[in-house]
């Protein structure tokens, strides 16, 4: 099975923190140097805005650009519904904000049906080339998923103008998705709002080094907006003097162009429900999409404009709109503002229909996807009105604009304009490249143990020259190409120093061994935060480290990505990639060495837990009393079955002169240890047998607990003592496990260096895969 080649991009997602780390390092690759080398010429940025919604996102960036005239030169192009009287002539907002509008393009073909939208795209395409040619911007900023934006992106892409697309990668569930993704395909750079939008773009084969996770620009202002104190005047100015904070509704429903009939019906039901709910309500006119005319007719037929509870308006300036949303008792409709901005204030939202299906939302949103009865909507109003939710930051932390400005400055204008798509590797190319033959993809693995510090070069594929033309390349096999072992120094500085020296030596050797080193994987004792590469807390074996950053010193000295995880987790990763765990969805690894550790693979992924202390299997407690454990507790399986525990018992027996059997010796230099105990038991020492029996039973009981907790299909025993425990563990399972767990397989690992192989697998898994 050629693992990693049959990847279906739709089924594979970024799932775990190791992978996320890699994506981050890819993104963070500094291009500052190049940008500094660039002539100190202003960056010509053209911002094109089509309607009030996109302006609300673009305006904060425009202000940011304008405030740095030494860096940027701003050009503003206005088109689309900004210039339409029925939609409030919203271009005036831009003038009020004191931006010079360089070009106004009338691009809307009236008619408000599907054909009119297409004609509008066509009209924009006819008018844009002239303007773009005249302005010749370095970068064109395009926002979102409107048809006007598609025209902009199409024109710019064909005219070799770099496009920065804002808010790509999101999913709403309508035709907007197709347009948004089409713009992403045309765009050269992306500034996205959310982590999952970023992942979507990556899985759409966009180059992740060109994706900026910025957050939503309108959030910057937003997050400070609702603290202002003049909001009550704003509320009164729109809804009358009698209205109170959190005692009114904001309604904003747009047509869904792919299902106009249904969206008009939902609109009707919403208005009915609002009439019977009997609260002050601000209704905004729908946007210009096909179907909007009909919705306005519905509104008029129901007399909304004359109704004492309602105020129907075409446009509210964004900063005032935000205040209105922030202090509303509830927001209803299908506007993206409801699922996005409202979340920042904790305003309750009722989302009607399918227009925002698939958007990431906070807990403030109540979906009425199938809004087919007045009753349902009314009930939703009853549930949501007047509630307050915790503020959500899914869409940003308030620093989006700064990030975007910085990102634009790092865009290298000398870089080839043609973007590259990062396709999943489909099939191994039949023709060979000399590098493929000579180089093997490899990793440096570091194992930080109690006594020894080990570094190894580990490669994934072992090509031999003669096997190149056969189909049986040993894909998926790990090979320790070269290993380096030193005593582990005492202090942190000495230790990092030594790791660096060993790694540098290994990298030099790797060149001659034709191993291409893709990164460094570190396996260490203790509790690890693999996201940040930090040892949070280690055992006495490595000097009780706490909050030690291993990643930064290594990655900055070696210029390679560095992964760090706990040795038990690494052993499980090793089994998943190279050992008995290959292709097994749920399994557990238990390492019995000096201590006892382990790793849990569930649904093919490692479990880290909420504070990274999942799979501390050595500290499963199997007795109320029991011997004291290194962790401070009593009766942990580590206190019964680890090498140290057996050594403790061996010493005890030896002191009482009960250990040694005929033919056994312990010379003065060596300490009595677990091996002596095992030897004695083999020779028939009943005391030693009994100690081992207890140890095996304790371990078996611990494993029975694991089986009952997570029900893996396989338990892999590894470490020096594994073979001795295989049978006792099987026996305890057959005696004590529930019937359904009795069939769980128990195997002894065949891997020689699980910690090193696992450390390497973190590197090889993420660096050799371009699809997620
Ligand atoms: Zn313990």
UniProtKB/TrEMBL annotation:
- The UDP-N-acetylglucosamine 2-epimerase domain covers which part of the protein? 71-408
Going by the entry's taxonomy, the superkingdom of the source organism is recorded as: Eukaryota
Stretches assigned to coiled coil: none
Record InterPro entries: ATPase_NBD, ROK, UDP-GlcNAc_Epase, UDP_GlcNAc_Epimerase_2_dom
Q: Which Gene3D superfamilies match?
A: 3.30.420.40, Glycogen Phosphorylase B
List, in alphabetical order, the GO biological process terms annotated in this UniProt record. Answer: UDP-N-acetylglucosamine metabolic process
The pathway entry for this protein reads as: Amino-sugar metabolism; N-acetylneuraminate biosynthesis
Active site at 567
Q: Name one GO cellular component term.
A: cytosol
**What is any Pfam family matched here?**
ROK
- Which keywords, in A-to-Z order, does the entry hold? Allosteric enzyme, ATP-binding, Cytoplasm, Hydrolase, Kinase, Metal-binding, Multifunctional enzyme, Nucleotide-binding, Phosphoprotein, Transferase, Zinc
- Where is the protein situated, by its record's location annotation? Cytoplasm, Cytosol
Give the EC number(s) under which this enzyme is classified. 2.7.1.60, 3.2.1.183
Q: What is its main location?
A: cytoplasm
Binding positions for Zn(2+)? 619, 629, 631, 636
Molecular function, one GO term? UDP-N-acetylglucosamine 2-epimerase activity
From the UniProt record, list the reaction(s) this protein catalyses. UDP-N-acetyl-alpha-D-glucosamine + H2O = aldehydo-N-acetyl-D-mannosamine + UDP + H(+); an N-acyl-D-mannosamine + ATP = an N-acyl-D-mannosamine 6-phosphate + ADP + H(+)
Give the record's family classification. Answer: In the N-terminal section; belongs to the UDP-N-acetylglucosamine 2-epimerase family. In the C-terminal section; belongs to the ROK (NagC/XylR) family.
Complexes and interactors: Homodimer. Homotetramer. Homohexamer. The hexameric form exhibits both enzyme activities, whereas the dimeric form only catalyzes the phosphorylation of N-acyl-D-mannosamine.
Entry protein name: Bifunctional UDP-N-acetylglucosamine 2-epimerase/N-acetylmannosamine kinase
Q: What is the lineage of its organism?
A: Eukaryota, Metazoa, Chordata, Craniata, Vertebrata
